[in-house]
Write a structure and sequence with these properties.
By secondary structure, this protein is of the alpha/beta class. The protein has helices at 18-32, 44-49, 96-105, 117-128, 153-174, 189-197, 212-224, 262-274, 294-312, 332-335, 347-354, and strands at residues 5-10, 36-40, 52-55, 82-84, 91-93, 110-115, 133-137, 177-182, 202-204, 229-234, 246-249, 257-259, 278-282, 318-323, 326-331. The chain is elongated. Bound molecules: 6-O-phosphono-beta-D-fructofuranose (F6P).
Length: 361
């Protein structure tokens, strides 16, 4: 298929590797297809409001190692649930027709949607309305179905692992407990991966509701031996019989729920119940910023190249996917709808237990 004009958008929360994907679509599109590459500004918000700019070869040079996204992104731009008005008077409207109109005005042959589940759900709906769309799976959370991995996850996990390494030296020096709260929404991939890599003594993830008594027992036991404990807790972790902690509900967002606060709670309860001095670090957006790891740069580049190849073959309503180390395409509908959570019988859970890590159960 002839590709004359292609559009690229980055949607939802940013993560390391977005620029590497933009580059790996834009460079060959310009070089080999002689295509014009239109960057949509701030995700779907730009498709609704008509914000875009044509990318030049210079725009996509020297960006493979840059975090963030040169196009900007937004998690408040769902065209089917689009917030209008000011913060005191928010109206939610269906602005999807504006997206269709802008796609046609821009004379796009394909729109590449780089994002997580929210972005890909919207992409699939737009495809149902006649647009040619190809998704590329991004998220630090790694919670997207139909791919073994999303790009961005490895970088976030590396940052969280480094944080655990740093916390370990200070925890050990002061004979303290230190709790690190990671992101990840309802999935424990970041906390589990970093926790295993960083040798955490306790790892708490949403998929395994934890017992307070088990946590206190482990801390007390370690306070008599190693004299310090490192706890890696996912923001979505919850105690048995308890609820996930919600920090904020913002109905303008594609996902209105913002999680957070479990790290503080775990630290406070440990200090209250065991008497062991405890501190907490909430890693927050540090784990989303900065340069992608080499692994994420390569995965992002492979995804971008495969997406362009799919477009040239006229294959739409699909998403690139990593499957057993091969990059393939899968129907977008297979990637959305459920979140990919950590299987409680997975090998990583097994090895964490094998080396004596307490998973709170
Ligand atoms: O989905 C990525 C993510 O970083 C989650 O891990 C986290 O819960 C959320 O986004 C934070 O969103 P925001 O950047 O809007 O605070």
């Amino acid at each position: 298929m002839k590709l004359n004009r292609i559009g690229i958008l980055t949607g939802g929360g940013d993560c390391p590797g977005l620029n590497a994907v933009i580059r790996s679509i834009a460079k060959p599109a310009m070089r080999h297809f002689n295509a014009r590459v239109i960057g949509i500004i701030d995700g779907y918000e730009g498709m609704v409001e008509g914000k875009h700019r044509e990318l030049t070869p210079l725009d996509v040079t020297g960006i493979i190692n840059q975090g963030g996204t040169i196009l900007g992104t937004s998690n408040k731009g769902d065209p089917f649930h689009f917030p209008m008005g000011d913060r005191n008077n928010v109206r939610i409207v269906d602005a999807s027709q504006q997206v269709i109109d802008h796609y046609r005005d821009l004379k796009l042959d394909v729109l590449f949607t780089i994002g997580g589940d929210g972005t890909q759900i919207i992409a699939h709906k737009l495809s149902g309305m006649g647009l040619c769309v190809i998704g590329i799976p991004k998220t630090i959370d790694n919670d997207l179905e139909a791919t073994d991995l999303t790009f961005g996850h490895d970088s976030a996990r590396a940052v969280a692992t480094e944080a655990l390494d740093r916390l370990q030296t200070t925890a050990s020096a002061h004979h303290r407990v230190i709790v690190l709260e990671t992101m990840g929404r309802y999935a424990g991939w970041i906390a589990l991966g970093a926790g295993v890599a960083g040798g955490s003594d306790i790892i708490l993830i949403p998929e395994i509701p934890f017992s307070w008594d088990k946590v206190f027992e482990t801390v007390l036991m370690r306070s008599r031996g190693a004299k310090f404990s490192i706890i890696c807790v996912a923001e979505g972790a919850k105690p048995q019989g308890g609820d996930i902690l919600v920090k904020e509900i913002d109905k303008k967002r594609t996902d209105p729920v913002r999680l957070g606060g479990i790290g503080e709670l775990v630290a406070k309860r440990i200090e209250d119940e065991t008497g062991v001095e405890t501190r907490v670090t909430v890693l927050g957006h540090v784990q989303r910023g900065g340069s992608p790891t080499a692994f994420d740069r390569i995965l992002a580049t492979r995804f971008g190249a495969a997406a362009l190849q799919a477009a040239s073959a006229g294959e739409f309503d699909v998403m690139t996917s990593l499957q057993r180390n091969d990059v393939v395409t899968v129907p977008l509908k297979d990637a959305i709808g459920h979140q990919r959570l950590v299987p409680v019988d997975s090998q990583l859970v097994f090895v964490a237990r094998a080396v004596g890590t307490c998973l709170g159960d």
